[in-house]
Design a protein that fits this description.
Pfam families: AAA_14 (PF13173), DUF4143 (PF13635). This is ATPase. Helix content is 45%, strand content 16%. By secondary structure, it is of the alpha/beta class.
Amino acid sequence: MFVARYIYPALLAHSTKRQITVLTGMRRTGKTTLLKQLMAQCDIPQKHYFDLERIDVRTLFSEPNYETIVQALSRQGTDFSKKVLICIDEIQLAPNLPSVLKYLYDSYDIKFIVTGSSAYYMKNQFSESLAGRKKIFEIFPLTFGELLAFKGIQGGRPEIKSAAKFVTSEYERLKAYYDEYVDFGGFPEVVLAESAEDKRDLISDILSSYINFDLTLLSDIRNPTNLFKLIKLLSVRIGTKLDISKLTSLTGMARQTVENYLDLLEKSYLIKTIPVLAKSPDREIVKARKVYFLDNGIASLAGELSSGSKFENAVFNQLAHRGEIAYYQLKTGREIDFILDQKQCFEVKETATEADLKHTESLARNLDITESYVIGRHPVRVFEGFIWGGFLQ
């Protein structure tokens, strides 16, 4: 059974447009499932699906004469005088594919829907050769609301103000699922696995594949052990400002190498750094970015995380799919954890109090933001402006 992702309506709408539809993100986030569903719902009669993990398919798309591809498909009965749908999985496995797509796109009436796991490659190669011919859609691990849907549990996607209305029965109904999301994240296979041990094994395999395959394709990494060491160091720094000098010292790598690896990890969807929102640079921290992981299961596996760090990372991912995230901090150390689209402020506390909300509201006034909330995991106290994390679906 296909469970629609939040991004699916946008993908479906774009599948009818002439532009190339590109799905990218970490491997095993569900790109192939989305691709095949789009293919099934497309009303173009002539359809082809190609998986570039197959050697014979890679050989076909590596032909130096691109017309050979057209000839091969014509022999299979495809009429290129009419519209054709071509779906291609794992395009990063064929380095010359952007050139192939550009030629075929310009020469024939072909709708392409393609997937690729390597964002760094996708953004660089596609930006150069397919300008104006493509639109990139980023596919992330499941949100908490999508996790519920995958498990057949009724959920929703309430607005922030609706999420701030605490309903005890809903909390009791969803609490165990939310704890699972905080601990194990949102990779579809992991969500559907039955036992905690199976979930951990799958997460370990996903991380290993990411380092050994995705990153190997993207960069000349001579020592994967150093990269894993950096990932572990980042996981225990969730929600803290990046200190490049400290990371350089702890890893023993050159500063430029650390900076290159951080850039690679972010562009390939393992981590995300967020900026500080500053209006009065003389009073505020203005440069340092904070780091978060784009999946809680990966973050938990990589390092020994505190319960609070896991919860904050989960909330980051829940808010990130709603808009642009920043943080705010005075030089005195007082801060707001998250600011959404420069309109709403959020403090994250496992056990929240009214004092936490007042603290956030007072800082928000510096930014002329009037809407503030405290997001908590344990609703020991429920008050106006309190949001239980599980209601942010």
